[in-house]
Amino acid sequence: MATIKLTIEYDGTDYVGWQVQPNGISVQQVVEQALCGVLGEEVRLHSSGRTDAGVHARGMVAHFHTFRQLPESAYREGVNRLLPRDIAVRGVEEVNEDFHARFSARGKWYRYSLYLAPVRSPLAERYSWHLRSRLDEIAMARAAAGFVGCHDFSAFRSSSCEARSTRREVFSVELLREGELLHIDVKGAGFLKNMVRVMVGTLVEIGLGRRPEADVPRLLREGGRPAAGRTAPPQGLCLMEVWY
């Protein structure tokens, strides 16, 4: 039996998220159907994590097992011919049978993009959160440094998050300007549901002067989701890379 690792890129706008769900079409469902068309057998993808409805990915990693022996090009070119234009297999690799896309992962890189301009951009609206107000980016960067390290992120997760432990390690949080776009790059060992989006929502409120920079360490100490900032809209978030 072969274990195949896929790196998948997708625009999540029209999907209910990565994971198969009863209320709509998911990215996982579409990719599994395409794999079935190439392999002639049903397979189950095991991913490095989940993305919510509207969230995008440049580097979602998933693996599956198969008894078929096909060249790697069949899983890339063959599967891509059966996928819609908003999903593509970008990389294929046969890996050891003990590889697991989720449990073997050592870290992830998420990028959240803010579009800062007085007028909305039709080309940017699918991939960023449009804000018309000026942000204090220096205050945001200072506050972002408070997330780095191993902390209890219970204040920065969805109320529906089912994770047993709320402690997570964040390696870095960096702000990067690119014209009218402000990217917030978050790298860490793992993340709770909506964690990055709540972190961004909190940083935006700091940038708008609606809460002090000191709120980040306070929230990490005291917990409590209602005290943190809003959950940033999904379209600004993109899973950039998973490393092993």
UniProtKB/TrEMBL annotation:
Active site (record annotation): 52 (nucleophile)
Gene3D superfamilies: Pseudouridine synthase I, catalytic domain, C-terminal subdomain (3.30.70.660), Pseudouridine synthase I, catalytic domain, N-terminal subdomain (3.30.70.580)
Source organism superkingdom: Bacteria
Binding site for substrate: 110
E.C. number(s) listed in UniProt: 5.4.99.12
Pfam families in UniProt: PseudoU_synth_1 (PF01416)
Catalytic activity: uridine(38/39/40) in tRNA = pseudouridine(38/39/40) in tRNA
Ranges of residues in domain Pseudouridine synthase I TruA alpha/beta: 8-103, 143-244
InterPro entries reported in the protein's UniProt record: PsdUridine_synth_cat_dom_sf, PsdUridine_synth_TruA, PsdUridine_synth_TruA_a/b_dom, PsdUridine_synth_TruA_C, TruA/RsuA/RluB/E/F_N
NCBIfam families assigned to the protein according to its UniProt record, in alphabetical order: hisT_truA (TIGR00071)
Family under the similarity heading: Belongs to the tRNA pseudouridine synthase TruA family.
Function in brief: Formation of pseudouridine at positions 38, 39 and 40 in the anticodon stem and loop of transfer RNAs.
Oligomeric form and interacting partners: Homodimer.
UniProt-recorded name of the protein: tRNA pseudouridine synthase A
Organism listed in the record: Desulfuromonas versatilis
Name of the gene: truA
